[in-house]
Write a structure and sequence with these properties.
By secondary structure, this protein is α+β, with helices and mostly antiparallel strands. Helices cover 62% and strands 14% of the residues. Helix 2 runs antiparallel to helix 3. The longest helix is centred in the first third of the chain and has 45 residues. It is flat and about 100 Å long.
């Protein structure tokens, strides 16, 4: 039989927590509720001001970039070869850039896309192999069924032979695809 002892602590009765139970005084609970109630609005205000400040910094940086892109330094020559004054004037309206030839594709991106295609092919072949194995099991059940007529049994055996040929072809393709994947992974992406 477990007994719980209580004792007086600063005017509050507190129970012992020896049995693994947590004990706290009612005033402590009220104190936590009081603190949490005050902290919630403070946290909301801090988050709100931080987000507003972050937006204003981003806006200021964007405006500064636009201002700098519109400025161009101009040198005015007063007399024979001497620079008299340097001014900053807004740049004239920019013309649209002429279309350039497309940059060559990144070999790493090409390698990654080929790798993804090969992995997708392997998954498709694995699914096909599983489907053929399930068909093979069904056909075997028909071949070895206890009550069948000879014609049905011969048809099932013919389908079983076709299924086994298809399964062997899929497994060969799957092995080749896996070897190709292993070779690509061993070689790694092309160097730039």
């Amino acid at each position: 039989m477990k007994t719980v002892s209580s004792f007086l602590q600063l005017g509050q009765w507190t129970r012992s927590a020896r049995a693994g139970a947590m004990a706290s005084s009612p005033s402590q609970a009220r104190h936590l509720k009081c603190i949490i109630g005050v902290m919630k609005p403070l946290v909301v205000v801090l988050l709100f001001t931080t987000s507003i400040q972050a937006q204003s910094v981003a806006d200021a940086a964007r405006k500064e970039r636009e201002r700098r892109s519109n400025l161009r330094s101009v040198v005015v020559f007063a007399s024979q070869g001497k620079a008299a004054e340097t001014q900053t004037a807004p740049a004239p309206a920019k013309e649209l850039p002429k279309p350039q030839a497309a940059p060559p594709p990144d070999p790493t991106q090409i390698w990654n896309s080929e790798l993804d295609k090969l992995r997708a092919r392997i998954r498709a072949l694995q699914d096909q192999e599983t489907a053929l194995q399930l068909q093979q099991n069904e056909i075997r059940n028909q071949v070895y069924a206890p009550v069948t007529d000879p014609a049905t049994q011969e048809q099932a055996q013919a389908r079983l032979g076709q299924n086994q040929q298809q399964l062997a072809a899929v497994r060969t393709d799957l092995d080749q695809a896996r070897k190709s994947l292993d070779d690509m992974l061993l070689q790694g992406p092309p160097k730039k």
